[in-house]
Every structure is written in structure tokens, then in C-alpha cells.
UniProtKB/TrEMBL annotation:
Domain of life: Bacteria
Stretch forming the signal peptide: none
Organism expressing this protein natively: Candidatus Yonathbacteria bacterium RIFCSPHIGHO2_02_FULL_44_14
Protein name: SHS2 domain-containing protein
Stored Pfam families: PilM_2
InterPro entries registered for this protein in UniProt: ATPase_NBD, FtsA/MreB, PilM
Gene3D superfamilies in the cross-refs: 3.30.1490.300, 3.30.420.40
Length: 358
């Protein structure tokens, strides 16, 4: 993330800055990253992760508030976190584009609120939304809007109460992911695939804004289950084999190979469908959409041996592991305290930490 020359050479005193800690929460785990601003850019501060027991959060909704609060309290005690920017699940969000008449930027939020119920199945009073300006064309402003149920955010807020950690902002995870893996200022069109444990997020980013997002209920955990079942071993043993041997599972077991390939083929096909839909359909102005230039892979299991090659076999554009640190600092002068492989799991948290007040 670029900052003004003034702040590069004369950064404000540490006590005048609020620590930028990004907290990425999913059904199975939470990860946090702090970025500390130095003269030559950001460096990593505190970071870590915690598992979330099954049933505490389901499909992005908090089901066991006290249990989640206890995890927050433990992190507070160990890392002394104070202020955090928090992710919201993409699967619970509504993303759409609006074409509004030219107006003052200060009037945009009110204009969006007036038409919100035409685009999402939530009453305006029961929704929270944010927006990005994509571009201005003549007498119109094109904006990308994300809306979530207010009750979803209230569930997380309740869990934070009494934990000692204060959320200062919430953001739909796909926007945080885009801020992390897409080079700042690059207006080309990309797809980001976040291969998580229980689900995979697919997003298309164009002209610097998220233009499309979807969730596929396929994750790395399904691969682990397949290995454990077919080799008759524990889940932990299967997880170890998966990371050592990659998507082959390290076995010539035909049933295992079929099980793994059937899981991954669903994901590859979904990626292909989203790519085709984007590129074969015109936009609201009747113009052909820009071609996707590259597919970036991130998420906990995106670095499995053979995974990127398998995904690439179904695509006609380059596929590569994302550089989640691309907007943090140049790796020519800074060696981060986290490995490239591990950074793929922290992509959303890094994007949250890069978020700055507008």
C-alpha cells in the first residue's frame, strides 16, 4: 500500500497510530495479522491463528457466542490485541453493481440506501452496506455495493463484548482478499480463488473493484476426509499426508484417487463456469467484459503439490499462487517473519490489516 511521501519520511509517532490488526474469521479457524508502518513500508507485527471448534460458527453465523468470546479473550491475554478489522463471510453477503446519476460523493450512500431493497432480500433498516466507486462515465457513476444482514454483524459484536478486543470495522472477506493479492493500482481483470478448509471463495476483480463473488462448498477438509476414509487413518494423520504428498494423497489406491479427483473436478469446473460467464456476457452498458488476465490461488490448501497444475488444466489463462505480501512491502529489502506458503493462509487477514480510514 502506497502512502504519501510525507509519511514515508516522517511517520507519525507510534502512540498516535491505531495498530492495524486484521482478524479473519471462518467456521473452522481465525487468523490475525498486525502491520507496523516503518520508513520503508509495512512490516509484520503480531500474527497467529486459532482453531474454532465445530459448531461455534456455522456458515458464517455465530451459534455459540460464549465459546467465541472465550477464544477472543485467550487471544487478548496472549497477544494483547486491542483494535481489529474483522472479516465477514462472503456467503452471507450480497454483491451487486449500481449505475447512478452523477452526484456529490457525499450523497452516494443515501442514494444507494433508497434503492437497496430492489437488489437484496433484506429491508434497508435490517441491512448494513458499503460500496466502492468503480468508475465515472459521462453523467453516471458506477459503484459496487456489498450488503449483509445487520443481525450477522450483531452476532460478532456480541461475542467481542467483554473480551477486551474492540472491532473498529467489518468488511466482506472478498474485498480484503482483493486488497491483499491484487497489486495496488492494477486495473486489469483477475480471478482470485481462496481454497479454504470448508469452502472456496471465487472472486473477479476488475478496474480495482470486486465485480463478482461466489462461494463453492468445496474445501481442503474434504480432501483430508477422503484420505482418512480410504486409508483408514485418523484425520490428523490424513492432514499430514495431504501436505506431504499433495493432491495425490501419496497412494496408488484407485478409490482414493477417484475420490480426490471428483472433489477437485467440482472446483475446477466451477472456476471454469465463472470464467466463461464473465467473459461471454456483456456488462450493463452492452459492452464486452475485459478478459481475465490471471487466476491467483490462495488459502490454506492452495499450495498443495499438484493443486495449481490441476486447476490450470481447466483454464486458458495463467494460474499461480498469489503473493499475499505484494502490497505490504517489497521482498527485495524485507524478509517477512512468515513463509510464502503460510502467507497464503493469511491473505484475507493481510488485506484487512492494509485497510485504512478513507
Amino acid at each position: 500500500m502506497k502512502r504519501s511521501k510525507f509519511y514515508q519520511f516522517f511517520p507519525p509517532p507510534q502512540f498516535l497510530q491505531m495498530s492495524a490488526v486484521g482478524l479473519d474469521i471462518s467456521d473452522a479457524s481465525m487468523r490475525f495479522v498486525e502491520l507496523v508502518e516503518k520508513r520503508k513500508g509495512f512490516v509484520l507485527g503480531r500474527f497467529g491463528e486459532r482453531p474454532i471448534p465445530r459448531g461455534v460458527i456455522e456458515s458464517g453465523e455465530v451459534k455459540k457466542t460464549a465459546d467465541l468470546r472465550a477464544i477472543f479473550s485467550d487471544i487478548k491475554k496472549e497477544y494483547n490485541l486491542e483494535f481489529v478489522s474483522v472479516s465477514l463471510p462472503e456467503e452471507k453477503a450480497y454483491l451487486f453493481e449500481l449505475h447512478l446519476p452523477a452526484m456529490k460523493y457525499s450523497d452516494l450512500r443515501g442514494a444507494i440506501e433508497l434503492v437497496l431493497e430492489e437488489h437484496v432480500p433484506i429491508k434497508a433498516n435490517d441491512a448494513l452496506f458499503d460500496y466502492d466507486i468503480i468508475k465515472e462515465e459521462g453523467s453516471a457513476i458506477n459503484v459496487s455495493v456489498s450488503a449483509v444482514p445487520r443481525a450477522l454483524v450483531d452476532g460478532y459484536l456480541e461475542a467481542f463484548l467483554g473480551s477486551g478486543i474492540t472491532p473498529v470495522s467489518f468488511e466482506v472477506e472478498v474485498h480484503s482478499l482483493a486488497r491483499s493479492v491484487i497489486p495496488e493500482g492494477d486495473k486489469n481483470t483477475f480471478m482470485a480463488v481462496d481454497f479454504g478448509k470448508t469452502r472456496t471463495g471465487i472472486a473477479i476483480i476488475s478496474e480495482g473493484a470486486v465485480r463478482f463473488a461466489s462461494t463453492v462448498p468445496v474445501g481442503g477438509g474434504a480432501l483430508t476426509d477422503a484420505i482418512a476414509k480410504n486409508l483408514e487413518i485418523s484425520y490428523d494423520e490424513a492432514e499430514k499426508i495431504k501436505h506431504e504428498k499433495g493432491i495425490s494423497g501419496g497412494s496408488t489406491n484407485e478409490n482414493l484417487s477417484l475420490a480426490i479427483m471428483s472433489i477437485l473436478s467440482i472446483l475446477r469446473d466451477e472456476i471454469g463456469k465463472h470464467q466463461t460467464y464473465w467473459q461471454d456476457h456483456v456488462d450493463e452498458y452492452g459492452k464486452k467484459r475485459p478478459m481475465i488476465q490471471k487466476i491467483y490461488l490462495c488459502g490454506g490448501d492452495s499450495n498443495l503439490g499438484g493443486f495449481s497444475s490441476y486447476i490450470a488444466s481447466g483454464s486458458n489463462v495463467p494460474v499461480e499462487a498469489a503473493n499475499a505480501m505484494v502490497n505490504v512491502n517489497t521482498l527485495d529489502e524485507y524478509i517477512p517473519e512468515i513463509s510464502f506458503s503460510d502467507s497464503l493462509r493469511y491473505a484475507t487477514a493481510l488485506g484487512l490489516a492494509l485497510r485504512r480510514p478513507q
